[in-house]
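Quick review question:
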């Protein structure tokens, strides 16, 4: 039997780190930048106005007030997008809009609200400090400096900045292409009619959803419990994928299709000291990483959380791969098998003003209780040495 931490490290090492690839910004959401990105332009690229109003030389409107307005001729109109930059002559004003380039010779902008809004000539009713309402070249980012550093997770702000400094594509860690294989002769896909002894398939939906949620690609295949047909269906497709994740067929029965098909081909099957999710397999099949999870749906999701999610995040270049861990008081007594780390589905909440939250189990320990998982927002972690956790005791909780 291998420990949870050892097995998690083995799966993370198996997946390694994805190579960099250049992708259009629209395909980069949630991915991790593989190299530093330097700004192709300064931000702002030119001195520009922060307000709609009039560009002036501040000394020309010194002392202006509603009682003693200063009148200036308006000699230019500068909307945003005007590409020539005219010069402001002392004693005149240019009408200017937010984001438009500030003319040479102007050192401030008077908001339109502090004028009569005139087009030919303008009455300025308030003095302007030098520099008022000006946004300076490079105030946000200087051309040539690192705007986004390698390892940055690309969300809306980061992708917006990439576009603002002139990038159309970015070097990112390539999202893994994952083949999710559900095994079991009892499996039927909705809306086909169930016969006695059959069940509707759910593992591939869970895994593909979770994997896609990280920014990876997932395709799904379903195999019956027959070694020859499992190999025949999956082996020719291995070259299309960076990872194969199977579920089912790994424990001790007479028809363990995944274990029987892949033992001796580079995939090792073992027991991990946890519950659920004890029976696991991992290795390479024709060089392609394979992670084989047990078939029970709750075991699948818990195995995903404990092993696959951190390994996939790490492969994608993330450094923060762990769920947030908090301490919480148990609302009821829980028991756990000796020498196994137990992960129970739970609901965590923290009352206003309380330092420590509370957590209650959702459903029992059974790894077939998928409906209870849908009521959970966390996993309660009962360590290997714990067999009893009394009501009111503090436990570790992983927030999902
Ligand atoms: N004698 C032993 N029996 C079992 C052991 C053991 O150590 N000794 N371990 C148990 C544990 S723990 C688990 S977990 C399961 C794992 O078994 P398998 O990985 O071989 O999974 P299956 O037998 O194929 O399926 C288990 C269960 O899950 C259902 N299932 C499978 N795939 C799907 C799917 N895609 N969608 C929905 N449900 C699925 C399947 O019908 C079974 O009910 O073994 C225990 N037995
Ligand atoms: O390990 Mo099994 O996953 O307990 O149900």
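Suggested answer, residue by residue:
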């Amino acid at each position: 039997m291998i420990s949870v931490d050892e097995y998690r490290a083995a799966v993370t090492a198996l997946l390694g780190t994805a190579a960099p690839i250049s992708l259009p910004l629209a395909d980069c959401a949630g991915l991790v930048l593989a190299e530093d990105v330097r700004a192709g332009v300064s931000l702002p690229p030119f001195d520009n106005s922060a307000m709609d109003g009039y560009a002036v030389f501040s000394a020309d409107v010194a002392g202006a007030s509603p009682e003693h307005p200063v009148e200036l001729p308006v000699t230019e109109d500068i909307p945003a997008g005007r590409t020539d930059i005219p010069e402001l002559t002392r004693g005149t004003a240019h009408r200017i809009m937010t984001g438009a380039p500030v003319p040479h010779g102007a050192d401030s902008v008077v908001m339109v609200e502090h004028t009569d809004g005139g087009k030919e000539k303008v009455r300025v009713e308030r003095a302007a400090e030098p520099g008022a309402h000006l946004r300076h070249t490079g105030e946000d980012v200087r051309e040539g400096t690192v705007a986004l550093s390698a390892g940055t997770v690309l969300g809306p702000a980061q992708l917006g900045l990439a576009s603002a400094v002139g990038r159309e594509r970015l070097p990112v860690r390539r999202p893994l292409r994952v083949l999710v294989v559900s095994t079991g002769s009892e499996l039927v896909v909705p809306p086909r009619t169930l016969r006695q002894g059959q069940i509707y398939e759910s593992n591939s939906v869970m895994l593909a959803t979770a994997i896609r949620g990280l920014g990876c690609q997932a395709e799904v295949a379903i195999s019956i419990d027959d070694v020859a047909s499992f190999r025949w269906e999956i082996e020719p497709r291995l070259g299309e994928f960076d990872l194969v994740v199977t579920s089912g067929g790994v424990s001790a029965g007479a028809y363990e299709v995944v274990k029987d098909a892949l033992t001796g081909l580079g995939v090792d099957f073992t027991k991990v000291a946890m519950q659920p999710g004890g029976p696991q397999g991992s290795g390479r099949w024709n060089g392609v990483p394979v992670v084989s999870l047990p078939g029970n749906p709750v075991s699948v999701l818990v195995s995903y959380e404990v092993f696959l999610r951190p390994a996939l995040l790490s492969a994608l270049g993330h450094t923060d791969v762990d769920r947030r861990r908090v301490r919480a008081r148990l609302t009821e007594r829980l028991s756990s098998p000796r020498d196994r780390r137990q992960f129970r589905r739970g609901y965590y909440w923290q009352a206003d003003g309380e330092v420590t939250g509370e957590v209650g189990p959702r459903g029992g320990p059974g790894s077939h209780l998928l409906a209870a998982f849908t009521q959970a927002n966390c996993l309660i972690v009962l360590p290997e040495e714990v067999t009893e956790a009394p009501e009111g005791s503090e436990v570790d909780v992983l927030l999902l």
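Why it works: The chain has a mean pLDDT of 97. The domain at 325-399 is CATH 2.40.340.10 (Beta-clip).
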